[in-house]
Amino acid sequence: MDAITWHARRLMRQLGPAGLAGITLLAATLTILLAGVLPLRGEIDSLRMELAARPLKSRPVIPVLPPDQILAKELALFQARFPTVDELPNELDALFILTKDKGLELNKGEYALVEKTGGALRRFEVTLPVTGTYSQIHGLILDVLEKLPSTALADIVLERGKVAEGQAAVILRFVFFVRKRA
User: What angle do CA 114, 116, 119 make, to 5 degrees?
Assistant: First the structure.
C-alpha cells in the first residue's frame, strides 16, 4: 500500500493543480456521458424511426400579400364604414330627430354637396341655425357625434341673446362624409 500511495503522491506533484483539475473534469465528463447521454441514445433512435414512419403532412400555405394590396384592402374596409349617398336622407332624418328630441328650435338650414375630383368620399355640409339653451345645444352636438359616426362638427357660431332669456342662437355646421355610388 505504501508503494501505491507513494506513486499517487508523485503523480499529483508532477501534474500540479491544473493537471488534477483536468483529470477531475475528464472523469466528470465520462460519468455524465455514460450515465446520462448514452442511455438516451436508444430513445433518440426509436423517436427517429417513429418520425420516419409517419406520413408527411403538408402545412397550409398562407398567402402573403404585397404591402400595396394590404393597404388597398384596409382602405376599402375603412371606406365601407361610411354610408352611401343613397343613405344620406336617413342620416339627415336622424339629425333632425336628434334636434327635435333635444327640444331645439330649428330654423331654415342650408345644404351643400362638396365633391373633389380624387378620393372615394364626398362631403355633405349641413348648416343648422338652432335656438335653445347651452345645455340643449351641447347635448345635441354630443348625440350627433356619438350616433352618427360618419359626421363631423365643422363649425359653431354663437350669438348670445339677453342673459335673462337663457337662450342662444347658434349656427352649427356639420359635415357628413358619404361614399360615392359604386
Answer: 120
pTM score of the predicted model: 0.59
| DSSP three-state, residue 143 | helix
pLDDT digits (tens, 9 = 90+) for 122-136: 888 999 999 888 899
Q: Is 169 helix (H, G, I), strand (E, B) or coil?
A: strand
Check: CB of residue 88 under 8 Å from CB of residue 112. Answer: no
CATH superfamily, domain at 83-179: Ribosomal protein S6/Translation elongation factor EF1B (3.30.70.60)
What are the residue boundaries of the structural domains of the chain, listed by start?
A: 2-53, 83-179
Residue pair 114/123 in contact (Cβ under 8 Å)? The answer is: yes
Upper half-sphere CA count for residue 83 (Cβ side, 13 Å): 17
